[in-house]
């Protein structure tokens, strides 16, 4: 049976190539993946002037290029920004949040998402999510290699050393994975606070945003 370390090292180029391809696909196609996952559809001015005008007015006031607008046809109270550049920036709103909130509240929510785009939070979050996935994949590969080492029941010093090498690889990958998760959640929380402050400054209506956030919290509690 092939030495586990040799097997691990031989598979390393393939694993690295796979993670590189994974990163490129996730980076280039994340917007399409999000739309497929949520079932969102483009929203234009003719379909909903109210939403279009709210987004357009905020963008004009901030000197921002207007992002694409998508609508998710469900009753949830959901809104999020996506995209990594001017070509892919978008704001998605659920039918539920459009119907539930009044104009001032909805303007606050949209301003919150525009702040995420303005601060490039979406790009940062996408990168962190991709790396969490990559480290999880590498940890799985290393774990499988360790299992392979365990199946070779030979007690030679060589095999023991091989198992130790693979075990070290697992520990290093696992630590990197957990650090990336912590960074992701740390970034998310900090950026959410900044987006709240940015939305209040953008709309000059902090109480409207607070009312919208309260409505979202109550909806989540009820669910």
Work out the number of β strands. Answer: 4
Helical residues, percent: over 70%
Helices and strands, in order, run as HEHEEEHHHHH
Structural class: alpha+beta
Strand content bin: 5-15%
The residue-averaged pLDDT reads 76
Please give the alpha-carbon distance between the first and last residues.
Answer: 54 Å
Low-confidence stretches: 153-157
Please count the helical segments.
7
Strand order of the largest sheet: 1-2-4-3
Structure write-up:
It is a single chain. This protein has 223 residues and is of the alpha+beta class. Helix content is 74%, strand content 7%. Strands 1-2-4-3 form a four-stranded mixed beta sheet, with helices on both faces. Strand 3 and strand 4 form a beta hairpin. The longest helix has 47 residues, at 157-203. The protein is elongated. It starts with a helix and ends with a helix. Mean pLDDT is 76; it is low at 153-157.
Name the features.
four-stranded mixed beta sheet; single chain; alpha+beta; 223 residues; 7% strand; elongated; 4 strands
Secondary structure elements and their pairing?
Layout: H1 4-38, E1 41-42, H2 49-62, E2 68-72, E3 79-82, E4 90-94, H3 95-100, H4 103-118, H5 121-151, H6 157-203, H7 206-222
Parallel strand pairs: 2-4
Antiparallel strand pairs: 1-2, 3-4
